[in-house]
Amino acid sequence: MLKQVPNLGKGRAVQRGITESTGDLVLVQDADLEYDPTDYPALLAASEGGTVAVYGSRILGQLRERGWTVFPGKHSSQGLGPWIANVALSVWVFLLYGRWLTDSLTAYKLYPVRALRRYHVKTSGFETDHELTAKLIRDGVPIREVPISYIPRSAAQGKKIRAIDGVIALWTLFKFRFIA
Q1: CB 1 within 8 A of CB 111
Q2: How far apart are CA 76 and CA 114, in angstroms?
Q3: 42 burial type by CB count under 10 A (0-12 exposed, 13-18 middle, 19+ buried)
Q4: Strand, helix or coil for residue 171
Q5: 108-117, 142-151, 152-161 — which is least confidently predicted?
Q6: 57 near 106, Cβ under 8 Å?
Q7: Please, what's the b/e burial string for 147-161 (b: 16 or more CB within 10 A of its CB; e: otherwise)?
Q8: pTM of the prediction?
Q9: 142 cis-preceded (ω within 30 degrees of 0)
């Protein structure tokens, strides 16, 4: 396990993980444990030996557990705002890249190291997830989604993502589609 002191943000931690990895895959999981490590085998099985990026989909996980509801894929403890933001971001990814991802905001991603080492990662916060998604799609790296378990946290419990992070995500995806 690596510790990064001082904390330089999620993006810098992901960059360090890529640099120091010795295997074929890098698994990114936020430290808040909203996601269940027992989902690792499903992520690994879908990776096709490190040739495919795998995103854990909370949406697909909720559809698996609860079926279709008024708000498909929304966890009963999840706020409506974050669920809508995720759907909006999925639509944005589709409009920009022609690729539908049910849960582009997931913090549970398994990346092929070979692909990531080709990239110079420019961001340092939560938006690093979106920069990497943009680069993977642009390079034609397949992204497979698998259902995962999810127990959402509230801001009172330490959830750090804010509305401004959604705006940054939209801009990051736009920027890496047309500018960067």
Answers
A1: no
A2: 38
A3: middle
A4: helix
A5: 152-161
A6: yes
A7: bbbbebbeeeeeeeb
A8: 0.92
A9: no
